[in-house]
Amino acid sequence: MKKRLRKGSFTVEASFIIPLLLMVIAGLICLCLYLHDRSVLASCAAELAGKGANQKYKSEAEIKDWLTGEAQGLAAGRLLALKKYVVSVEVTKGSVVVTYTGNTGLLGGLEICEREEAKRLNPVTFIRGTQQLKQLLER
Q1: How many CB atoms lie within 10 A of CB 44?
Q2: Bridge partners, 100 (sequence order)
Q3: Looking at the chain, which runs of residues are DSSP E strands?
Q4: Closest Cα to residue 117, out of 101, 100, 102, 98?
Q5: What is the predicted pLDDT for the residue at 6?
């Protein structure tokens, strides 16, 4: 009689533990999807900021329009959990800032906001400045 009671106690214990384990595993999977999408958006923002900073002979409005179009296509097929996101691009004379923001439905609605900035450098001005500095030091 005791052996049958012991077998039944394992079933009762498993009925409490297995749902808890399944919830923990589901939570870890959702967290992995969130972190994946966040890293994809961070790399997309960094890539676009760098591309925009390298555009030397375009106006700020042209760069902004071009980067906004590129931003939608760059992240489109690479996201797993995030379906809707907003891209904002700010281009000034000295820098390019790309920001991705969005909301996931995972774990109660996690927010993603990735922002990357790149300085716009003019290599001609930089080289001329270093040459002038070199000439001053030689005197």
Answers
A1: 24
A2: 87, 114
A3: 85-91, 95-103, 111-119
A4: 98
A5: 61
Quote the tokens at residue 123: 């290599």
Closest CA to 67 of 48, 54, 84, 53: 48
Q: What is the pTM of this model?
A: 0.77
pLDDT at 4: 58
Angle, in degrees to the nearest 10, between helices 2-53 and 60-75 = 160
Consecutive sets of 10 residues in the chain, 139 residues long: mean pLDDT of each? 62 86 94 93 95 88 92 88 91 93 86 93 80 85
The tokens for 103 are 């909301």
Rounded CA-CA distance 88/42 in Å is: 13
Instruction: Measure the CA–CA gap between 123 and 30, rounded to whole angstroms.
Output: 45
